[in-house]
Design a protein that fits this description.
The protein is α+β, with helices and mostly antiparallel strands. It has three domains: about 120 residues, Butyryl-Coa Dehydrogenase, subunit A, domain 1 (Orthogonal Bundle), CATH 1.10.540; about 110 residues, Butyryl-CoA Dehydrogenase, subunit A, domain 2, CATH 2.40.110; about 130 residues, Butyryl-CoA Dehydrogenase, subunit A, domain 3 (Up-down Bundle). The protein is built from eleven helices and ten strands. It has a four-stranded mixed β-sheet. A four-stranded antiparallel β-sheet has the order 2-3-7-6, with no helix packed on it. Helix 4 runs antiparallel to helix 5 and helix 9 runs antiparallel to helix 10. It is globular, with a radius of gyration of 21 Å.
């Protein structure tokens, strides 16, 4: 097995990390993120190629595979302390642009993908409902066929980027009797009559990612807005989830790397009882545990993305990768707070924000419990 990177891959990672750090400098400790993210920041991500990393170059993308895309998002997560912005970009690319590229018509792709790559367009993934969080096979939002298209009615309860979105990728039931085969995916411009985004939620973390409910009331969408074909919604969604559960969490691997360095720097500089904190085994061993979680998550992430690039199903690898990255990010953030002591608890020091931003990773893209169920199924249990 080859654990090395080519010279081109190393150079791409270096350039991205430097560009991210230059565009989003750390600044004063505890500086609050912009709520929501600024369009200038979004445009900067577009110029770096991050919003179109795995999209075809004909639309302004970079044309990378899953592994190289994950490496860039790892650099973004490491270099940008605003994890809310990292998450917003990831949701835009992996949950919206990726399925649009894979299942959209040429006209749909030509209309939307160039702006999604450049940063002119913000996309929101409208799937979750009040009664369909983990169980997305029972969507109450309906799409009734009419002449020339469908009429959508329903409410999506938690849409990342919702208040800022220019376009939504959404899912509705077109055949209630067909179960997961009765769902259809649509691309819906945010200014379509009948579409209304609610007020942004006040959240625990990821505060620069605007999120809200989105309502679709007697919303007509033409047949040309369907991704794939009617009834393919579950297939479209699972394809996007494969990319999201792998590549989105590369940003959290980058965060874990930043936390290891932050905790190490604090432990080397802080003195108690006449010696540095690194001289206390309880502290140094905790940092080693952080490094072990980082490297474990990183290797599982790379394995999952490599399998995706090989055209393999990668279901087990992706589930394990998501588990390792999300659980590891929360554990590392909590350890960083404990190593930094009282300072770690203070907002002005900035470490507590990392913990708040890490906690949601246990919930979105399928909870940890869902990932374990998926892994158990793949193991034949």
């Amino acid at each position: 097995m080859d654990f090395g990177w080519s010279a081109d891959q190393e150079e791409r990672h270096r350039r991205t990390l430097e560009a991210v750090r230059a565009a989003f400098p750390a600044g004063p400790a505890g500086r609050p993120p912009r709520e929501p993210f600024a369009r200038t920041d979004w445009a900067a991500l577009g110029r770096m190629g991050l919003l179109g990393a795995c999209l075809p170059d004909k639309y302004g993308g970079v044309g990378l595979g899953a592994l190289d895309t994950a490496r860039l998002y790892e650099a973004l997560g490491e270099g940008c302390e605003d994890t809310g912005l990292v998450f917003a970009a990831s949701a835009h690319l992996f949950a919206c642009a990726v399925p649009l590229d894979r299942f959209g018509s040429d006209d749909l792709k030509s209309r939307w993908l160039p702006g999604m790559c450049s940063g002119e367009v913000v996309a929101g993934n409208a799937m979750t409902e009040d009664e369909a969080g983990s169980d997305v096979s029972r969507l109450r939002m309906t799409a009734v066929p009419v002449a020339g298209g469908h009429v959508l009615n329903g409410r999506k309860s938690f849409v990342s980027n919702g208040p800022a979105a220019d376009v939504f990728v959404t899912y509705a039931t077109t055949d209630p009797e067909a179960g997961h085969l009765g769902q259809t995916a649509f691309v819906v411009p945010a200014d379509t009559p009948g579409v209304r985004a609610g007020q942004p939620f006040d959240k625990m973390g990821l505060r620069s990612t605007p999120a809200s409910a989105v309502t679709f009331a007697d919303c007509f969408v033409p047949d040309t807005a369907v991704l794939g074909a009617p009834g393919m919604g579950a297939t479209v969604f699972q394809h996007s989830m494969g990319w999201e559960r792998a590549c989105l969490f590369a940003g959290y691997v980058g965060m874990m790397a930043r936390l290891v360095e932050r905790a190490s720097e604090h432990a080397r500089s802080r003195r108690q009882f006449g010696r540095r904190l690194t001289g206390f085994q309880a502290v140094s061993h905790r940092i080693v545990d952080m490094a072990m979680r980082l490297e474990s998550a990183r290797l599982l992430l790379y394995r999952a993305c490599w399998e995706m690039d090989q055209g393999r199903p990668a279901r087990l690898a992706v589930a394990l990768s998501k588990l390792a990255a999300s659980e590891g990010a929360v554990a590392n953030a909590l350890d960083a707070v404990r190593i930094c002591g009282g300072r770690g608890y203070l907002t002005e020091f900035g470490v507590e924000a990392e913990l708040r931003d890490a906690v949601p990773s246990l919930l979105f893209s399928g909870t940890s419990e869902i990932q374990k169920e998926l892994a158990a199924k793949e193991l034949g249990l």
